[in-house]
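[audit] Reproducing an earlier prediction to check determinism. Same input, same settings, fresh worker. If the tokens differ from the archived copy the diff job will pick it up downstream; this log only records the rerun itself.
[audit] input (310 residues):
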Amino acid sequence: MTLALTTALMFLIGYASQRAGVCMVRAVREVVERRRVHRLAGFALAASSAIVVMGLADWLGAEPFMTILGAPPDWLAVAGGVLFALGSLMAGHCAMGLLAGLTQGELWRAGSIAAMFLAALLLGPNMSSAALMLPERGTLPSPLAGHVLLALVVGGTLGTFAATYIYRRIGWKRPRGGWSPLIAMAVVGAASGLLFALDRQWLYTSRIAEIAYGRGWTLAGLIGFAALLAGMTLATLVGGTFRLRAGSLQHWTRAAGGGLLMGAGATLVPGGNDTMLFTGVPLLLPNLLTGYAAFAGTLFLALLIRRTRV
């Protein structure tokens, strides 16, 4: 029963995120180039929906806010966020965007994912601590643990503001063959919140790290990842956006280089931008929030500098 529900939720997240265009690089580029922030508001809506669902799950006794511990904000999280942003810019997409591009037929995106795995393999916790002499980090629980009412108030308030803003900007407008971003982002967040209560390592960058660190990949994890890809692929077919392209040598080189930087950044935070958004924000974990702020800020500054030089 749990495996079936997890698989269904992964498929739903894949489909909805593809139709909503879940990619932080794309969202920040729209802010810089078009002065539009409704995609960023969509991320806020997704995170707030996850908080509300996790709050309800906590009220029912699931205790999702206790499953993952964070760490104090430090320079490692900042450096990781910066590296992940630079890697995303080189690769052309963030973590979720890479999967979206791959399922749209952009085969070179696989080079980024493979490079992320290689970086995690070479810079795992034990290796990076020895080679980089990284300090031991303390642990911090989510401030929402044991505070169901606070979680519901924070999630509900943030979600209301984000949804209102999106509605005023674009209403229920939807892309061809897709859902309204207002609905899609709420579904992505709600499904991720429920999924987190069932499988805390559902995010694919977390799966990559688990394998690289020698902790294995369970059958349930493999099925879930396949369901995520299947949902994204179906969304591209329904939307008519699939076009198989092998890519040039430059595409593959940039993809691999970006993936290495993203993998290194994810090791330091620790976690990719999908983990920062869907774990760090709903749980309010300091190191992931710090990494996400550094990631978003670096994207904004880099794209702004690039635009002023054109």
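[audit] rerun output stored. Observation attached for the diff report: The chain has one domain: 2-309.
[audit] end
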